[in-house]
Design goal:
Elements: H1 3-18, H2 21-27, E1 28-36, E2 41-44, H3 45-54, E3 60-70, E4 75-85, E5 93-104, E6 107-117
Parallel strand pairs: 1-6
Antiparallel strand pairs: 1-2, 3-4, 4-5, 5-6
């Protein structure tokens, strides 16, 4: 396993959970998609950025059960469990997640992200 790449991608993931719209503009692939439980569903890059601007961000997130799957020199999948919380919210959000990154011009861009929340998670 490439520990340096895993560390780099986990840092990007942390910023996606906690970051602002500028981070999303810079680090999402132009044709990226994100998949969330209903009623959200599938979002394009522009839809994701609009939703980030409207809602509160996670103030903490922790990852466990991390797996890195290298599909090619330019494409990797990061699979993990996430536990996240927002300020003032006593209930943590827990989910299984996967992200596909593509290396474009030497920089890793998020092309696809999917979350499956635990049944008892909000």
């Amino acid at each position: 396993m490439d520990i340096n790449l895993e560390t780099q991608l986990l840092d990007l993931e942390r910023h996606f959970w906690k970051g602002d719209t500028e981070f999303y503009h810079q680090n999402l692939a132009d044709d990226s998609l994100m998949v969330f439980a209903m009623p959200i569903g599938v979002l394009t890059k522009d839809e994701v950025i609009r939703s980030i601007a409207l809602g509160p961000r996670w103030n903490e997130v922790h990852f466990s059960d991390v797996h890195l799957l290298r599909l090619s020199d330019r494409i990797v999948t990061l699979i993990y469990r996430a536990r996240a919380a927002r300020l003032g919210d006593e209930t943590a959000y827990e989910a299984s997640a996967s992200s596909i990154y593509v290396n474009a011009g030497g920089a890793w861009k998020l092309a696809f992200h999917q979350q499956t929340p635990d049944d008892d998670s909000n």
